[in-house]
Amino acid sequence: MVKIDNIELPDFPLLLAPMEDVSDPPFRALCKEQGADVVYTEFISSEGLIRDAAKSTMKLDIYEKERPVGIQIFGANLDSMLKSVEIVEKSNPDIIDINFGCPVKKVVSKGAGAGILKDIDLMVKLTKEMVKHTTLPITVKTRLGWDHDSIKIVEVAERLQDVGCKAIAIHGRTRAQMYKGHANWEPIAEVKNNQRMHIPVFGNGDVNTPERAVEMRDKYGLDGAMIGRATIGNPWFFKQVKHYINTGEHLAPITMKERLDAARRHLQMSIDWKGEVLGVLETRRHYTNYFKGIPHFKEYRTKMVTSDDAKDVFAAFDEVEEKFSNHQFV
């Protein structure tokens, strides 16, 4: 069993990574149904929260069926981060996670996300003060370092633990790498193998097959896997990993009916939550993977990703059902 503070999780839990415009309530619900043990919100700007920006406050919506759920915030100003903790507490999450890993320029340029990897003392200070400011467990998601020459993740993780961080998820790339190259899990294993570490250490980056998840557990000894891009349009990934962990065998391919049911539910839940315009727009990125592996599918995918009217997208799903209902995935 793995524990984040008092939250009990199974052995080698699978966590849905916070992803901008992806890990919203509709997608989190689908992932939870398919076996995600912990889900996280999209990352939320502390400055946006304290200004009551609509896009930021909307991301605070969480639902009982998601628990345990973490709300992730980012920022580099202590006063703003502490005020945002008070706002986040009102949504009653199970965890508050700090994003010290986002590599995107508009975040980094403000010294937030992975930008804070240039100032480890500030990173530790923010964490310490936020821990003191709330009774909720504070966790951290970060990267190996700013660049290859500044990787000090063993020391950084130890310092974060010492000021009260309850778990750490580490992406196996530096900020300089962005999402290029391969994630290096060796330094994450070094964090886990540090005799002074006693909080859970989760690995992140390139967990894109069930075999890789097992490798993260068995070869690198990590406490769990935080999974991001492999889940887009594939909420079943959690179920597939768990089946492989338990049996050593691959789960049977997801059927066309399951894929269509998920795509329809996903779109409808998104429309219900954020309205038709955004609901239609922000589910588009999932369709490629929902229907991956179907030959001669371009015409239907084009309809799904270019239609602004939900009725047209649902009609495209119906066409796919009619034409490809007997398609066997392998």
Could you give the topology of this structure?
Elements: E1 2-4, E2 7-9, E3 14-16, H1 25-33, E4 38-40, E5 44-45, H2 46-50, H3 54-58, E6 69-74, H4 78-89, E7 95-100, H5 105-108, H6 120-133, E8 138-143, H7 153-162, E9 168-171, H8 186-193, E10 201-204, H9 210-218, E11 224-227, H10 237-247, H11 256-274, H12 276-290, H13 298-306, H14 310-324
Parallel strand pairs: 3-4, 3-11, 4-6, 5-6, 6-7, 7-8, 8-9, 9-10, 10-11
Antiparallel strand pairs: 1-2
Q: Could you explain the architecture of this structure?
A:
The protein starts with a strand and ends in a 6-residue tail after the last helix. The model has no long low-confidence stretch (mean pLDDT 93). The protein contains 14 helices and eleven strands. The protein is of the alpha/beta class. The strands form two sheets. The chain has an eight-stranded parallel β-barrel with strand order 3-4-6-7-8-9-10-11, surrounded by six helices. It folds into two domains: 2-247, Alpha-Beta Barrel (TIM Barrel); 256-324, Non-ribosomal Peptide Synthetase Peptidyl Carrier Protein, Chain A.
Q: What is the chain-wise order of helices and strands? A: EEEHEEHHEHEHHEHEHEHEHHHHH
How many separate structural domains? 2
Count of helical stretches:
14
CATH homologous superfamily (4th level) name of the largest domain:
Aldolase class I
Q: Low-confidence stretches at least 5 residues in length (pLDDT < 50)?
A: none
Helical coverage, percent range: 40-55%
Average of per-residue pLDDT values = 93
Query: Radius of gyration, Cα only, in angstroms?
Result: 20 Å
- Main pleated-sheet profile: 8 strands, parallel, barrel
* Structural class by SSE content: alpha/beta
Strand content: 5-15%
